[in-house]
Design goal:
The complex is a heterodimer of chains A (112) and B (115). Chain A is an all-beta fold. Chain A has no helices and eleven strands.
Chain lengths: 112, 115
């Protein structure tokens, strides 16, 4: 089955700097890669996603890249703000199925 | 739409007791997922349903855990008997798995404490 590895587990950046979180997946058949943000005490919420037929997607300060050959994908947050502090999860969904496997999460701290 | 609804939001129970967690998915969503979240193990998929049918329960930790989805608008996750190591936040999520949108919408979670 699919396995998703996520790094780093903790990331601390200064406000205004960029943050990058990286994930790898094992199943080359996976075709959908969402990123979820979970604030303290809240539920995970989708912030951006990318499909296997796209290499990069951007939404304001957030961008995701996908390298299908290497089976890795990354989340880039530019001009970080204190409200970006949260746990971020990457995930991969198998083709033709419903199952989404989540990475272990990255706790991002943005210092003001 | 009110989003995914879970109840109770908090549950404190004694070891050995039966615990039932409830979930109402978003209307029109045909897939429902139960997750468990702990600091040690992260976000684990326990079981998921499609069109009310259990598709994959390989994540259910033990026979003490069971889940049902009697209709499109209701699901339960039951733990019997409960143990302290079951303490966690349990999330229910739903999604529409037709079309191109696979986003999962999570409920607020049930924080379970077993003493």
């Amino acid at each position: 089955g699919e396995n998703v590895e996520q790094h780093p587990s903790t990331l601390s950046v200064q406000e205004g700097d960029s943050a990058v979180i990286k994930c790898t997946y094992s199943d080359s058949a996976s075709n959908y890669f969402p990123w979820y943000k979970q604030e303290l005490g809240k539920r995970p919420q989708l912030i951006i996603d990318i499909r296997s037929n796209v290499g990069e997607k951007k939404d304001q300060r957030i961008a995701v890249t996908l390298n299908k050959t290497a089976k890795h994908f990354s989340l880039h947050i530019t001009e970080t703000q204190p409200e970006d502090s949260a746990v971020y999860f990457c995930a991969a969904k198998e083709t033709g199925g419903f199952k989404t496997i989540f990475g272990a999460g990255t706790r991002l701290f943005v210092k003001a | 739409d009110a989003g995914v609804i879970q109840s109770p939001r908090h549950e404190v129970t004694e070891m050995g007791q039966e615990v039932t967690l409830r979930c109402k998915p978003i209307s029109g969503h045909n897939s429902l997922f139960w997750y468990r979240q702990t600091m040690m193990r992260g976000l684990e998929l326990l079981i998921y349903f499609n069109n009310n049918v259990p598709i994959d329960d390989s994540g259910m930790p033990e026979d003490r855990f069971s889940a049902k989805m009697p209709n499109a608008s209701f699901s339960t996750l039951k733990i019997q008997p409960s143990e302290p190591r079951d303490s966690a936040v349990y999330f229910c999520a739903s999604s529409r798995t037709t079309g191109a949108n696979y986003e999962q919408y999570f409920g607020p979670g049930t924080r379970l404490t077993v003493t």
